[in-house]
């Protein structure tokens, strides 16, 4: 291999030029993060630089086009100069092999680390300071490259319209992944939970969040007024389903507020005259559609029925809202805490009737973690029966993915 002898000034000049181009590439990459993550409330109206930043952000597509043009130009210059330097050092023929591969690897690492990762992290931590520092360069090139930016914006708008005509969808999983990536900065755990609740809202069915029939507090229509008042005092609910013979034959809903004027009536008081119509829904109904129905019909409770018309469970407006904002507890909800007891971050005691949806929320797991193995089950006990096929014995341990369930049977 024949090497070309070059003076030391060539190496110094080449190295210095590459460093300048890397710095400029990094500056532009950081500017992209800085400008588009700025909170408009931090702008100082009396600060000239902030006024110019606001003007640039009024045309975000043009600003983005300018940044992308500059970033790609600097990166192309780096690669071109590096290739030229390798030809000068080892000759064009020899440079086609190992040297070019090594050069490409080194230059790629330098561009990714110093031209992308480092400046973007710095810009994300102090976006306003970084944006002010970059402003003179971005302002100059934004005007200089305006014709080319307009051309690129026009082409992208044309492509975007074509894509919109064809249509495209994002899966819930992809949206959740996007939330995990984008909400790491400046978003609390509670806010992130609300965002995920909104994303998952349209995917949940009534069956996943309803209160099962064994937990429904209902009363027989044949009960006298004193029996009714006794149950009202014990449960503390504002609405009670009323059935005939058994809970599969719910006839109406009693609103407790309708009973307030008659608290001192005798036991033969005909309270059944105040029953209101029941809203029945199938267990497969999505909760976003049910939420709209609740709003339109101005009701707050629905009875969930199975395919045979039997009572499967009960769902309220509060249950739906809790899927977005988290648990809403009042003085009558203390008993709900008995469904589980958190021992530590990795251990908890659950009742078998706990829904898989609630289990996932309590243990901070994705809602679909059991989808492939749960079958038709929506409760923790149902899941274990689905996997075990037999009724688990006391102290039996069942492993499900990364979870280890130990069965405890309590006799009351």
Please provide a brief summary of the model.
By secondary structure, this protein is of the alpha+beta class. It has 14 helices and eleven strands. 51% of the residues lie in helices and 12% in strands.
End-to-end Cα distance: 89 Å
Helicity level: 40-55%
Give the CA-based shape: elongated
SSE-based structural type: alpha+beta
Average pLDDT confidence is: 78
Number of domains: 4
Describe the structure.
Helix content is 51%, strand content 12%. It is α+β, with helices and mostly antiparallel strands. The chain folds into four domains: 8-166, no CATH class; 172-203, no CATH class; 206-325, CBS-domain; 334-406, 2-Layer Sandwich (Uridine Diphospho-n-acetylenolpyruvylglucosamine Reductase, domain 3). Residues 1-5 have low confidence and may be disordered.
List the helices and strands and how they pair.
Elements: H1 8-36, H2 48-57, H3 60-90, H4 98-125, H5 127-144, H6 146-166, H7 172-182, H8 189-200, H9 206-209, E1 211-212, E2 219-220, H10 225-235, E3 239-244, E4 246-255, E5 280-282, H11 287-297, E6 301-305, E7 311-316, H12 317-325, E8 340-344, E9 347-350, H13 356-362, H14 380-388, E10 397-400, E11 403-406
Parallel strand pairs: 2-3, 5-6
Antiparallel strand pairs: 1-7, 3-4, 6-7, 8-9, 10-11
Helix pairs in contact: 1-3, 1-4, 1-5, 2-5, 3-4, 3-6, 4-5, 7-8
Keyword list:
412 residues, four-stranded mixed β-sheet, alpha+beta, 4 domains, three-stranded mixed β-sheet
């Amino acid at each position: 291999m024949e090497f070309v002898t070059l003076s030391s000034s060539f190496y110094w000049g080449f190295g210095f030029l590459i460093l300048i181009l890397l710095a400029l590439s990094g500056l532009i990459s950081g500017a992209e993060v800085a400008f588009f993550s700025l909170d408009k409330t931090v702008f100082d109206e009396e600060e000239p630089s902030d006024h110019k930043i606001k003007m640039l952000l009024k045309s975000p597509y043009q600003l983005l086009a300018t940044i992308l043009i500059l970033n790609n130009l600097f990166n192309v210059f780096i690669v071109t100069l590096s290739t030229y330097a390798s030809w000068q050092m080892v000759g064009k023929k020899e440079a086609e092999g190992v040297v070019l591969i090594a050069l490409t690897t080194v230059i790629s690492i330098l561009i990714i680390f110093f031209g992308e990762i480092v400046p973007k992290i710095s810009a994300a931590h102090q976006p306003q300071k970084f944006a002010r520092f970059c402003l003179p360069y971005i302002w100059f090139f934004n005007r200089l490259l305006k014709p080319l930016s307009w051309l690129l914006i026009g082409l992208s708008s044309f492509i975007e319209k074509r894509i919109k005509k064809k249509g495209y969808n994002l899966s819930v999983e992809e949206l959740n992944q996007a939330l995990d990536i984008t909400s790491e900065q400046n978003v609390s755990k509670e806010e992130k939970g609300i965002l995920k609740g909104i994303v998952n809202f349209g995917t949940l069915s009534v069956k996943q969040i309803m209160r099962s029939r064994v937990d429904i507090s209902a009363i027989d229509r044949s009960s006298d007024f004193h029996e009714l008042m006794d149950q009202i005092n014990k449960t503390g609910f504002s609405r009670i389903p009323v059935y005939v013979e058994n809970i599969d034959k719910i006839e109406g809903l009693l609103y407790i507020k309708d009973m307030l004027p008659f608290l001192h009536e005798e036991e033969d008081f005909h309270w059944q005259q105040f029953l209101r119509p029941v809203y029945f829904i199938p267990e497969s109904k999505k909760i976003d559609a049910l939420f709209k129905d609740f709003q339109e019909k101005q009701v707050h409770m629905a009875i969930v029925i199975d395919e045979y018309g039997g009572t499967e469970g009960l769902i309220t407006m509060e249950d739906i809202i809790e899927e977005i904002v988290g648990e809403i507890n009042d003085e009558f909800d203390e008993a709900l805490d008995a469904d589980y007891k958190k021992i530590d971050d990795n251990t908890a005691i659950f009742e078998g009737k706990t829904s898989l949806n609630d289990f996932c929320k309590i243990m901070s797991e994705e809602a679909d973690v059991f989808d492939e193995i749960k079958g038709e089950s929506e409760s923790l006990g149902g899941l274990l029966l689905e996997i075990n096929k037999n009724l688990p014995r006391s102290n039996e341990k069942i492993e499900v993915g990364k979870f280890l369930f130990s069965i405890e049977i309590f006799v009351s």
